[in-house]
Specification:
Structural class: alpha+beta
CATH class of one domain: Alpha Beta
Distance between the termini: 24 Å
CATH superfamily of one domain: Gcn5-related N-acetyltransferase (GNAT)
Largest sheet: 7 strands, mixed
Oligomer: single chain
Radius of gyration: 15 Å
Strand content: 25-35%
Number of strands: 7
């Protein structure tokens, strides 16, 4: 979806994960790439006060150059396959758009997740927003 439709939910999730949880400066979180990117959101239904409520719990974006970024899953929803499903959706979107190279900058602590999803290390360690990362590229396997 475009940024206009994704903005509120994606900003809330990214703020909770990157700014509040990981200490990324708020001014770095929303950038000029957001309006130019394809955004994905994952939703879950949950009971709340006797009703079922649908809430956005994960987000990521795909830039025009095949870079997947700003992937965030709310803490209470991790470990349930939501992140993997979201990542697979963006890989499919990239391939549907004819992108041969699909890359991402993985936080060091998340590299195992991305490896299990078919990504391989493609750089040495570097710092981004004060957090250690390594660039990874999709190897075309799932």
């Amino acid at each position: 979806m475009d940024w206009e439709r994704a903005c509120d939910a994606a900003t809330a999730i990214r703020t909770a994960v990157f700014v509040d949880e990981q200490g990324v400066p708020a001014e770095l979180e929303i950038d000029a790439d957001d309006p130019l990117s394809l955004h994905a959101l994952a939703y879950v239904d949950a009971p709340m006060k006797g009703q079922r409520v649908t809430s956005a719990v994960a987000t990521a974006r795909l830039l025009a150059d095949g870079h997947i970024g700003r992937m965030a899953v709310l803490p209470a929803c991790r470990g349930q396959g939501i992140g993997r499903a979201l990542l697979e959706r963006l890989i499919t979107a990239a391939r549907d758009r004819g992108m041969d190279a699909i890359v991402l900058n993985a936080q060091i602590q998340a590299m195992g997740f991305y490896t299990r999803c078919g990504f391989v290390i493609d750089s040495s360690e570097f710092m981004e927003a004060g957090i250690a990362h390594r660039r990874m590229r999709w190897a075309g396997v799932r």
